[in-house]
Write a structure and sequence with these properties.
The structure is a homodimer. The first copy, chain A, is α+β, with helices and mostly antiparallel strands. Chain A folds into three domains: 75 residues, Orthogonal Bundle (Arc Repressor Mutant, subunit A); 162 residues, Beta-Lactamase (2-Layer Sandwich), CATH 3.30.450.40; 93 residues, 2-Layer Sandwich (Enolase-like, domain 1), CATH 3.30.390.60. A five-stranded antiparallel sheet of chain A has the order 7-3-10-9-8. Chain A has a three-stranded antiparallel sheet with strand order 4-5-6, covered by helices on one side. Chain A has a two-stranded antiparallel sheet with strand order 1-2. The first copy, chain A, is elongated, with a radius of gyration of 27 Å. The C terminus of chain A is likely disordered. Chains A and B meet through strand 4, strand 5, strand 6, helix 9 and helix 10 of A and strand 4, strand 5, strand 6 and helix 10 of B. Chain A binds a DNA duplex through helix 3.
DNA sequence: TTTAGCACTCGAGGGAAAGGAGTGCTAAAG
DNA sequence: CTTTAGCACTCCTTTCCCTCGAGTGCTAAA
């Protein structure tokens, strides 16, 4: 059977109406929405075809039709009018982005919050999670006899520091030598090697040098681990309850658990794809089989990539969400691009 | 009317049974639970008294009784057997606390997670939020011509650092002088003054010095702000759904919103109180009127105090939660006291 | 191919009735 | 004065049945 233009139009009407009203759409409504050029009986014939072709579903024999995941997919791919964000929306998004910049992670978490409030669904944000982070450089700063500050800069230009207490006194004069040692032997290598290298060097050092060295390495390891792990931030979870399909506790529960306790299982985006829409059963995760996810990526500096996603019912307003999310992601890319702070961009040196 | 020993015993039985079964308790059950020494009719007389006195409630005339908030309060204050955590529970808690320590905030967030999993209710953790944090010390480390690392140590011994990019080249040799300037004029004073002092000093400095100075101050301001703000971490939100009283979406919704989007409104603990139990209407927050909260505090080092709380139905298992939470809080105090990291750890040297 | 007409289906909503847990009261017993 | 057995009563819950109406599918005519 062929998918005629009229069938497509009907599918579009059904989908948009269902997105709006959350109840099955009947032939009479469709006939009217299409301008009354055909009768409801004709529509009914078409509807029967669309069900047979798998684009629509019928909750029960005497109900109207709702889109199947396949129907949504067609809608998203072909039928949906790619919305542009309005000037007002753009203005809102931009003003939300003006906030002051802090640590990378908290910026990313905030981005998630903004998205959630912009689209009115729960949202999540994922930090990059680079593969093999190494330390580019160490600095040790004296504090007092029993403590010093370790500063670690990674090759993805994050800088972390911590106050470390020692058991034996460390002379301030020894610190540069120690830092030198660290910078010579412990840069550019990965965590496992850090440990083994430390062991190899141990015999040559006295306890008063080995201890602070070991503490610094331990700290560096934690920094690297933390930098390699991707963190997920979620917000707006309670928006879920505003959706009629999640009045049913069992469904809401699954999603809530995912959004609060199993964040790491939220879908990520294929490389090189700016945006992706995952409809119902297209999701791998069981808890998302009755939901849809829209994910977009943005660039952080030149070589990092952030991810931001929205979770909603299959009936979610794809056109609006997709438009706002992609605009938001693009804005973030721009902001990170032309902006100061976190990752230094290699730009024009005079 | 007098609250006889038998009335108290009945109240205890009712409360504990209701905590367990989540349904009104009838006279027959109580008679049996009390060893059959009295008949259900006697119990019924007592129950009528207890209702009149306000310790019990009757959902409707022909139902059993449930404790009123006043009843819970009496139970918590007098009747409840202060449970001790079992050796096994203690072992579990201790092993959970063995995890490696990282940044203070993430340790605190993790503590929340552990508590939630220990008590099977949602939990939250609040960071201290000291009042007037100042910078104790600045360090500036050269990176390249266009960037340097600012390290800021606050008077509560947190150390934060960030890579800062400059617009004009900064010579590595200038940094110690700059740091000196910072340490002379910008330590021990509060944020507002930082800005004004910077302005006051501005005329004496060339742009190539003023810029990095201003950037460092800006960073320091952010660090202080962040350190003064108290952060709230929540976990285990979805545990709420396991409770029959929150099957009703409208109630669950209020709590969920509180636990996800309005965390800052979660109750805190009065100073000098190690633990507090807030039952139903004793809570200020509207969303908590049908819920109870158990909050405990622990010490972080010598002069900071962390907060950790559990949210559950009024029917929550106070004895168990209180026991585990207070044990956990005490363990945290010990850990922070004698321990590693933040205050770093003294361990055996090879 | 489209349309009007019509019987049919099925869920939602609203009592009515049955079932049952638990009460309150009374009157007798301790 | 307290306790207890007995019993009528209350009221929630569950179940069943009925009605109502939206919407369908099919047929036959345009």
């Amino acid at each position: 059977m062929e998918l005629t233009a009229r069938k497509k139009e009907i599918l579009k009407v059904v989908t948009e109406r269902y997105i709006d009203a959350a109840e099955p759409v009947g032939s009479k409504y469709i006939a009217q929405a299409m301008g009354g050029s055909v009768s409801s009986a004709t529509i009914r014939n078409e509807l029967a075809d669309l069900v047979e072709m798998g684009y629509l579903e019928q909750p029960h024999t005497s109900a109207g039709r709702i889109p199947s995941p396949k129907g949504y997919r067609l809608y998203v791919n072909e039928l949906m009018e790619r919305r542009q964000v309005s000037d007002q929306e753009a203005a809102e998004i931009n003003s939300a982005l003006q906030g002051k910049m802090q640590e990378l992670d908290s910026v990313i978490a905030q981005a998630g919050q903004m998205v959630s409030s912009i689209v009115n669904y729960p949202a999540y944000a994922v930090t990059a999670g680079k593969n093999s982070v190494t330390v580019r450089r160490y600095d040790l700063l004296p504090v007092d006899a029993m403590s010093f500050i370790a500063v670690v800069m990674t090759d993805d230009s994050r800088v972390k520091s911590q106050l470390l207490r020692t058991e034996l006194p460390v002379e301030a004069e020894q610190l540069p030598a120690l830092a030198n040692l660290l910078n010579t032997h412990f840069t550019g290598i990965h965590t496992e090697e850090l440990g083994s290298k430390l062991m190899a060097l141990a015999p040559q050092l006295g306890a008063e040098l080995f201890m602070p060295l070991s503490q610094t390495i331990e700290f560096a390891t934690a920094v690297i681990d933390n930098s390699e792990r991707s963190h997920v931030f979620t917000t707006g979870q309670s928006q879920i309850f505003r959706q009629p399909e999640f009045q049913d506790l069992t469904k809401a529960d699954g999603l809530m658990s995912l959004l609060t306790d199993q964040k790491s299982q939220l879908p990520v985006l294929d490389a090189n794809t700016p945006m992706q829409i995952l409809i119902g059963p297209e999701n791998v995760n069981e808890a998302l089989k009755d939901a849809s996810v829209v994910v977009a990526s943005y660039d952080i500096g030149d070589n990092m990539r952030g991810l931001i996603g929205v979770v909603g019912p299959t009936r979610m307003d794809y056109a609006t969400v997709a438009a706002r999310l992609s605009y938001f992601a693009e804005s973030l890319t721009k902001m990170f691009g032309k902006n100061n702070q976190l990752p230094p961009k290699e730009d024009d040196i005079p």
